[in-house]
Amino acid sequence: MNKKDTLAVNTGLIAGRILIEGGSEMERINKTIKEIVNKASDKDSQVFTSLTAIMVGVQDSSTMMFEQVEGRGINLEKIYQVDILVKQYINDELSLEELYARLKYLEKNIIDFSFLTKVAAAAVESAFLMVIFTQSLAYNDMLWTGVVGAIGYALATYLLKYTKIPFIREFLGSLALGAAALFGVRMGFADNINYVIIGAVMPLVPGVAITNSIRDLIEGNLVSGIERGFEATLTIFAIVSALALVLQYVTF
To answer: Cβ(21)–Cβ(73) under 8 Å?
Structure first.
């Protein structure tokens, strides 16, 4: 593999890893890597992607390059930025070297909202989804649902500093929001604990993972589809187990 092919494959690996870490579906990742490598080398590329690793090779070469993916989350802004950069490269607005440099910069400079902004968004999401799912406009339930949803999401997000295991974060976050919901109902801040929990748990539910799992399976990416589906199932099990423990054993 010559230097140009090596640079093209490295660039594709970085782009693919950023997309996986941002929560992209596998079809987009495979397409992005192939577009980068095929344009740079004028050869067909072979790509294998999963949630934990990427392998890329060039036709007529005995060398495959490997990239490990250590973390995953949801960051649609990073996916958008990668798409924009790759389109500029395909349209000859960026050279391969410039694309590589900008992807490395994007990799090191995480584009994300502040912690408080995300917690506030979780509160608003919880309150309004409670209304949508329960068809109830009880303002005390709605307000307390926002508070409880913010507590659960804040704890789960804060634990990112200490553990990369998602199931533990969701489990502890659900314990906290379940206890807060029960406390609020017992103290008279809210009336219906079922309504509060239904709304407050929504920011922790892995909706994007479930959607991408189904999409990957439909598109034939069976490995990543099963991986995402199994991970989402374990996350949901952790949430349900935590709430069941709180409702069964916690008293105020």
So the answer is: yes
